[in-house]
Amino acid sequence: MAPALASVEAEASADLIRAAGVKVTRGRVRVLDALHAARQPLSHAEVEARLGDASDPAVDRVTLYRILDSLVACGLALKAVDTRGVFRFSAAGAQRQHANHVHFRCTDCGGVFCLKAEPPPPPRLPRGFRLNEVAFDLRGTCAGCSSRVGV
Amino acid sequence: MAPALASVEAEASADLIRAAGVKVTRGRVRVLDALHAARQPLSHAEVEARLGDASDPAVDRVTLYRILDSLVACGLALKAVDTRGVFRFSAAGAQRQHANHVHFRCTDCGGVFCLKAEPPPPPRLPRGFRLNEVAFDLRGTCAGCSSRVGV
DNA sequence: GCGCAAACGCAACCTTGTTGCATTTAAATG
DNA sequence: CATTTAAATGCAACAAGGTTGCGTTTGCGC
After folding, report:
1. Strand D at less than 7 A from CB of B51
2. What's residue A22's pLDDT?
3. CB-based contact (8 Å) between A104 and chain B?
């Protein structure tokens, strides 16, 4: 039963939103659900498409922008920019699985590959600097693109 | 004498453009000059502002986009996207000075700081992967922003 | 249920970036 | 040097992404 599952997810999202200290609205719950269900960060347009169900109309474009910003502001979502300059949003916590290993970005196809290696310890920072996150990104061509070029 | 210096720079840019196998036009020379003179990657608007001199009018907005793209296409410039989703362009070669050390990006003010430490050796890659570049980026708050928050 | 601040929907607007087309120009050729 | 041609430019219009202002609705504390 899909509705039951959806309802459970909505409850979880609603609780998160309530705990964040902001109003629980249908729009926020549905957007946060969509972000949680997605495996990759979603653009504004992608979120809009996933909410545009037949039963109930999608939220307003501007409201969606504000919902996304509000989720970011209260720490439930993260905002990043992709290679085309478009903002992408992901549910907070989803990135933690990507925080502690190394990424390989293919400059040819744009794909991102997660390597098993752990990032090395960060060097000493100047006085007053506070470290939050370490990103160790390698760039090059992946196996698929390397072989395709050779053909 | 500034004009003499500018002329020398223009000659160098013109030679680079000629060597790249594309037409040498006034617009391309001036844009490449601007990119070389800049210490940071410039946005389209910033390039436009630097070319908008009193003596001769700035190039057309669209033409500037095409000039920047053509410089990227022939390998004389690099295109990247900043945290606001805006494309920034830098002269090719200028990035090499940033390739071999660690960067600290302040998530508060957006500033980038170059640390003295060298990046650690990359881990072993899966078969077929080719490595071109290593980026070891630390994220957090810089000294200035940390102290300002504390006040 | 009542009241109020927060959230929403709508319209208009701004910035960044792109496309089509007529005109100009770099530079190769004779 | 004159001719020629493909590339580059300028202009207008457009498209996508994102923001602002404002009146209306709604979550939620009382």
Report:
1. no
2. 93
3. yes
Nearest to A113 by CA among A132, A137, A93, A87: A137
Given a cut of 80, whether residue A68 has pLDDT beyond it is yes
Residues with Cβ within 8 Å of residue A95, at least 6 apart in sequence: A78
Distance from B70 to chain A by nearest Cα, in Å? Answer: 18
Q: Is the C-beta of residue B44 closer than 7 Å to nucleic acid chain D?
A: no
Pairwise CA distance, residues B149 & B146, whole Å: 5
- Tally of CA atoms within 13 A in the half-sphere of B46 that contains its CB: 14
Q: What is the model's pLDDT at position A126?
A: 80
3-class SS at A45? Answer: helix
Cα within 13 Å of Cα(A66), Cβ side? 7
Comparing C-alpha atoms, which of A61, A76, A65 is closest to residue A29? Answer: A76
All domains of chain A in start order, with CATH: 2-91 (1.10.10.10), 99-150 (3.30.1490)
Q: Count chain A–chain B contacts defined by CB atoms under 8 A.
A: 118
Confidence category of residue A7, pLDDT binned at 50, 70, 90: low
Q: How far apart are the first and last CA of chain B?
A: 47
Q: Mind giving me the DSSP string for A95-125? A: TGGGTTS-EEEETTT--EEE-SSPPPPPPPP
- Reported as a single tens digit per residue, the pLDDT across A12-29 is 889 999 999 899 999 999
Closest to A115 (Cβ–Cβ): which among B82, B84, B123?
Answer: B123
> Who contacts B26 (Cβ-Cβ below 8 Å, separation ≥6)?
none
pLDDT < 70 regions, chain B: 1-11, 53-57, 94-101, 107-111, 117-119, 122, 132-133, 144-151
The torsion of the CA quartet A49, A54, A55, A56, rounded to 10 degrees, works out to: 40
A140 vs B contacts (CB less than 8 Å)? 125, 129-133
**Is the pLDDT reported for residue A121 higher than 80?**
no
